[in-house]
Specification:
By secondary structure, this protein is of the alpha/beta class. Helices cover 42% and strands 16% of the residues. The chain has a 7-stranded mixed β-sheet with strand order 2-10-9-8-5-3-4, sandwiched between helices. The protein has a 3-stranded antiparallel β-sheet with strand order 11-14-13, covered by helices on one side. A hairpin with a 4-residue loop joins strand 6 and strand 7. The protein is globular and about 60 Å long. 46% of the residues are buried. The mean pLDDT is 97. Bound molecules: pyridoxal-5'-phosphate.
């Protein structure tokens, strides 16, 4: 059975333009041969432009979480004290990963739907000079909040000089994240959100300070060993067989992103984010994130109105309106639903969602 096209409005995977599907059906090549040398060289150079960085940058074959795992195992050692800022499901997951590796994780948590407070991070770092690193999620996909990474970095890097590790899976390539401008040591993202290609690739930037940390880091690593990745990249290769088809798509996606210009891409996400929030409010619904200045331009979380069966609502949206929305995660399950508006998305796509909600909500008692 073939999958029929629909309006996929989850915050990843996101829809893919036809031109990218076509590029991905190109024939397989030898990943130790000249076509690949050109492919990885071009993709890496363009990714550095999108990350706005001169740091090392690696393309890994994994989902975004693999990029996050690489950021941890290449910089930390068991028992290292790390501050994990979390205001949602993905922040918590990143902290869980640190726990799994035996890192001495200190969690600093905020209300789900609210932004991370840089002042609280300042206090935590002031109270305990032993912290080696801070991990933070730039855009909390589970709540639709974009945290103030610039201010967080000015505390973590500017005032305390700690290593700053960033989950940028649902922000990079959609909203501004100048990696060098904001002095972020390690930034990891995935392919299936803002980049308009399928799941299967992760991208990670790694600063000189991150390499210094790498020198003394003793966490076990093999598949995600960035020292290996660096050695191979010098020969225009990857240590292991890469996801070639996704990389064919990546090359086209990056060409398109750079042709549109980063400012154009950011502006488009900003206006579509605003369009979504305005439309949702016009339907009489309430946003989870009350702070308009920090509302995410890649995903909007909407409070499920009281007495509405959210599962039934989303099922009607899917079966009768051909619109696929995302539910809540963790403790927000059943309490919110989410509209993804990142990557390949137009106002028409969002208008379809709003129109469909306008028809479906009254049927479920709103
Ligand atoms: C989607 C997402 C992840 C997980 O990425 P996978 O590709 O599913 O591994 C991590 N962090 C954030 C913020 C995300 O949005």
């Amino acid at each position: 059975m073939r999958i029929q096209p629909h309006n996929l409005r989850t915050p990843g995977p996101t829809p893919i333009p036809d031109e990218i599907y076509e590029a991905m059906s190109d024939p397989m090549i030898n990943h130790r041969g000249p076509e690949f040398f050109e492919l990885i060289t071009e993709c890496t150079a363009m990714l550095k432009q999108v990350f706005m960085t001169d740091n090392d940058l690696f393309i890994l074959t994994s989902s975004g979480t693999g990029g996050l795992e690489a950021s941890v195992v290449n910089t930390l050692s068991p028992g290292d004290r790390v501050l994990a800022a979390s205001a949602g499901s993905f922040g918590d997951r990143f902290a869980d990963m640190l726990d799994a590796y035996g890192v001495d994780t200190q969690r600093i948590t905020f209300e789900w739907g609210e932004p991370i407070d840089p002042e609280a991070i300042r206090r935590a770092l002031r109270d305990d000079p032993e912290f080696k690193a801070v991990i933070v999620t730039h855009n909390e996909t589970s709540t639709g909040v974009t945290h103030d990474l610039q201010s967080i970095s000015s505390v973590v890097k500017g005032e305390f000089g700690k290593l700053l590790i960033v989950d940028a899976v649902s922000s990079l390539g959609c909203v501004p994240l100048p990696v060098d401008g904001w002095d972020c040591d390690v930034v990891a993202t995935g392919s299936q959100k803002g980049f308009m290609i399928p799941p299967g690739l992760a991208f990670i930037s790694f600063s000189n300070e991150a390499w210094e940390a790498q020198q003394s880091s003793t966490l076990p690593r093999f598949y995600f060993d960035l020292e290996e990745a660096k050695k191979y990249l010098e020969r225009k290769q990857t240590p292991w067989t890469p996801n070639l088809s996704a990389m064919y798509g990546l090359r086209v996606a990056l060409e398109n992103i750079l042709e549109e210009g980063l400012e154009g891409v950011f502006g488009r996400h900003a206006s579509i984010g605003q369009f979504t929030r305005d439309g949702v409010r016009a339907l009489g619904l309430e946003l989870l994130c009350a702070d308009e200045a920090r509302a995410s331009n890649t995903v909007t979380a909407i409070k499920m109105p009281a007495h509405i069966d959210g599962e039934q609502m989303m099922e009607l949206m899917r079966t009768e309106e051909n619109v696929v929305l995302a539910g809540g995660q963790g403790k927000l399950t059943g309490h919110i639903f989410r509209i993804g508006h990142l990557g390949y998305v137009t106002e028409d796509h969002i208008q379809e969602v709003l129109d469909a909600l306008g028809r479906v909500l009254p049927r479920v008692g709103f």
